[in-house]
Amino acid sequence: MKSVFVFGVLTLLSAVTGSNAFAFPEMIRHGYVNCTTCHVSQTGGGVLTEYGRELSKEVLSAWKSSSDSSKEHLFAYGWVTPPSWLRMGGDVRTIYVFQDDQYASQGRFILMQADLEAAATRGKFTALASLGYQNPKNSLTLQDHLISRRHYLSYQLTDNYSVRGGRFLPAFGINTPDHISATRQPLGFGQGLESYNLEGSYIGDKTNIFITGILGRPDAMALDREKGAAVQGAYAIYDKTKLGLSSFYGKNRRGTRTLVGPYGLISFSDNLVLLTELDFQFRSPVGQESIAGAVNSQKLSYELRQGFWGFVTQDWSRQDFKNERTTAQAYGVGLQVFPRPHFEFNLSWQRQKLKAFSEEFFDYAWLMSHFYF
User: Fold this and answer.
1) What is the DSSP letter of 257?
2) Which of 110, 193, 256, 299 is deepest in the core (most CB within 10 A)?
3) 2-372: what fold?
4) Which of 338, 306, 345, 334 shows the shortest CA–CA distance to 30?
5) pTM of the model as a whole
6) Any residues with CB less than 8 A from the CB of 274 and at least 6 apart, and which?
7) CB 276 within 8 A of CB 293
8) For residue 120, what pLDDT is reported?
9) Of 129, 94, 113, nearest in space to 11 by CA
């Protein structure tokens, strides 16, 4: 359709802007089964460790300096050197979205994120906080534009056990930056949906276990966010394959919700990785009959050459098994590029169908760009 051509031209022109702050689960192909290898956060994403920055240069980037003294992968390119107890990072993400359906063909540019983040460590304690810019619909003051998406205090009990409390996303499924996938934003685990939690975790060489008490948003009661608990466990059956199971229970004024399902990070070779997740959802709205449904998301990625990843995606969801019109599905292709340290671009195109609105598939495409400090 004409949307593919128009989108291609417009997104290439917009590629000079920046954007992605989360984990890159495809690192499983190198045997990195634990997020803490590269990130301060136990569940991945956000501030990088020194080793994580080295990997972003040596393993992810297509082109890099050949000098051993190069500082191109360091925070702010090494122009600012934080003390040893302080790790810093930051992300600017933008996206250009184009949609072509039976009603209209239109494009939109969005500033998704502009954050700074810091993690201070003293002994076994780590305090992490982010501060960023948002663009709310109704804003009267500068404070309305400021947001701290993540802030928490963690304590390392032993080499394997830790606890933390604060605001972050509960551990559930695959922590992927693809927020629109059926298993992230639609289930309540996407960016901007962070809650206040208390979490205990065990991170071993092959086994990960997370138990999270979810406190909702006591600072914003009007949002009516769910309170409850989540439990996630995973095991690396091979050096480059990890299988897990997640469960979640939440309750708010509208009713209760239970989620449970398996996921897998499977490396078929040094270049081919599958991320797959299937979740069953059981809802009990107040005053209504219980509703059962399921969601599924898969992404198969192939590294064409270092720094260039081609991928295919498939998403399917049915919010109510008894109602066919709650079915949504999508399939697509894309290219993810890490040209140099600090940069990432993701060009994707999908065919989508939402039975609640139409029986016809429509085009949905985007260019996501990311610059991290």
Assistant:
1) E
2) 299
3) Porin (2.40.160)
4) 306
5) 0.88
6) 264, 265, 266, 268, 298, 299, 300, 301
7) no
8) 97
9) 94
